[in-house]
Amino acid sequence: MRACVLALAVACALPAAADQRRSGFEDMGASTQAMQRDDGINPAMLWVQEGEQLWRRAPSSSARSCASCHGEPAALRGVAARYPAWDAPLRRPVNLGTRINLCRERHQGERPLPAEHGELLALESFVGLQSRGLPIAPPRDARLAPHLARGEALYRARIGQLELSCAQCHDERAGGRLGSALIPQGHATGYPIYRLEWQGPGSLARRLRGCMTGVRAEPHAAGSVEMAELELYLAARAMGMKLETPAVRP
Question: Of residues 4, 166, 169, 211, which has the active-site annotation?
């Protein structure tokens, strides 16, 4: 476990000239890149705008708004770049969407929003936008070490009827082709993302579950500790890369 954490720390400390990591943005066509660059035509900005309204509005007459606790959006700078992070009451890592739902339950007296709910994606997109351009920086928290190790094991494990792992596609075969589609390195730099295939935004968990289904494996449940651990490893794998939320992908 310590070796895993040390190896990640060493890899992320390499000079920029030696960094061969690529964002999926670099592998897209010019028109899709232009869509992400320009907030005026990025369709995900519709959810960002909704997220800001939800941030400022109390969910009920008896609850406080997010803004009443956390302040103006500038106070959110850097927050999204640090998730998944440790949650003390649950004693496990949680991603940003789960943190938002925990705040709804613990501080607003509201029910959690379902996975992939439009309002949850809107809030995640709004919070994520505030950290756009910052380096991904998962917390250096010793309590996360065993979860990080399990997340790496999940990433490298062969699963499903096709017996493929995440690493086989996104490390060993990145840059190759799966049919007509380019295989990306699979760095989680822009979630929630707007996928043209989906015609809407989606979380990293949705993308991961889609991959698991694609290799004919039983996907981990959204919000599960296994999903949080896999997301934690992906954050460590992308450490230092710039956050792009809300990104656009084909």
Answer: 211
